[in-house]
Amino acid sequence: MSRIYLKSGKEESLKRFHPWVFSGAISRIEGNVQEGDLVDVYTSHKEFIAKGHYQVGSIMVRVLTFDEHEAIDRDFWRSRLQEAYRKRTAIGIAQHPDNNTFRLVHGEGDYLSGLVIDIYGQTAVMQAHSAGMHYQRQEIAKALMEVMDGKIKHVYYKSETTLPYKADLGQENGFLIGGSKENIAIEYGMKFHIDWLKGQKTGFFVDQRENRALLEKYAKDRSVLNMFCYTGGFSVYALRGGAKSVYSIDSSAKAIELTKQNVALNFTDDNRHNAYAEDAFKYLDTMEKDKYDLIVLDPPAFAKHRDALRNALQGYRRINAKAFEKIKHGGILFTFSCSQAVNKDQFRTSVFSAAASTGRKVSILHQLTQPADHPVNIYHPESEYLKGLVLYVE
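Above: the chain sequence. Below: its structure as tokens.
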């Protein structure tokens, strides 16, 4: 196995169990290492400190273990997946009677850097974010079937857009085990079409489950605007919560079609719902004032890396200011950022600036984050990526 030696003093973050080794920390590499290979990491004093997958880029090693004697084999995958499932059972989501949709593996949050697995009924959708996880996909799928012990029958691999393009892996999405055209999953009693073939992420935004459930409690008799609706998750919950009307807006015509299908799955011929394919900023600019008293702003990541941070913060400020300007007195605003590069203080400051620019009186009702099946590794604060605020606007 190839060895990576760190520069003097660069082992401190690994001593605190941070699961990444950055390129700037590396002194030299021994051996003919290829992207996706397992490597041992040593300090400048030639002491073993970690083992993980090598990759090209800013993050050069994704750590899998800090134990020199732990082999990365079928037993390793089985053990880590078993612990992940045990965690979801402990929080009550894996065996919830009205829910068969949850995240089983959340990368660093489950000590499996570079791997995501979401469960939709009897289908697991696996996503690799590193070449190392890609090369191990078959072993992981087999271990997953063992751990789930009949609870899933299909494993779909969806990594075309998440693998490092420079690795030139030529990956195509497809089933590793089984094969099913059944793509309807249940979330807290609501049915949703899951587009794991071409949809974003693994086909659905599992991370907003608890926030959708919270919105349902505020929806009664309100006029709801769901911006960046994607497949209409917030819209469906608002309808069940007794909303007077719900408008779903997304720039993607395909997303609007999926939203309509999901509404129809749960509410037949419900004339409270309207959906339009339109640019979000344009819609907010032209919509009439006081039309809505509950607005959801759940945009895609405005900043996927720190170089885009300034523009992202301006984007959050601009879109929230529009919502503050137009929302009815006594309105409720659910506003989110899923940009990992934007921390919760920066996001909150952007929303504060937006509120101040409009002169509206605004109170924070809830501060939101990702649900418990998207755990944050205490040694890896970067895995806390979803930020949200629920605001009351006078």
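The first strand starts at residue 2 and ends at 6.
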